[in-house]
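Journal club prep, notes for RB
We'll compare a predicted complex against what the paper describes. Inputs for the FE2/S2 (inorganic) cluster case:
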Amino acid sequence: MDRGERRARRLEHGLDRRSVVMGAVACCAAGGVAWAGPEDALPQKGDRLVLGDGAKAGQPILLDDLPVGGDLVEAVAVDPQGVRRESSRFAKILLVRVAPDQVAEDQRAHAVDGVVALSAICTHQGCTISGWSHDTKRLSCFCHHSEFLPAEGGRVAKGPARKRLPVLPLAKGEGGALMVAGGFLGKPGPGPA
Ligand code: FES
């Protein structure tokens, strides 16, 4: 097993030491390794989304829970049997909401009333993204300060990352519940542009 494979394996199993040490920043050096595991570990069409953390962790995410201008929300996909897809950190999802007309036209089919979902794993070296500014409409990674535009298909606004953040297509379910309409549009994790 070469160095890259060893790093990938640490990542997949959430054992990268730096991810523990850095705590809130959740740094996890991926060394350029994108997801290469089984597809069913990642969100799939028909999954529902639940809150990933906080006092309401595990509760379904409804459209009304995400006001325009509100905070970034961490979500977890739950399969139709009720199993949370969280065996890999590459399955982590971020949700943000902007005004529907602020979503790029070619991305609107993947959004629900301005809510867009993306991979939470930075495409530079694999840190978990945790910054969001509604003013600039940018997600930011605190490891090396890459910035991404969720309403523009996860396009890179500022490096060192070069690869888009993969978008997760959404659908609206019963009662405004947010559902997954398809797998990530691209492999989550670090990679070339
Ligand atoms: S890991 Fe380097 S900017 Fe995100």
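Talking point for the session: The chain has one domain: 3-180.
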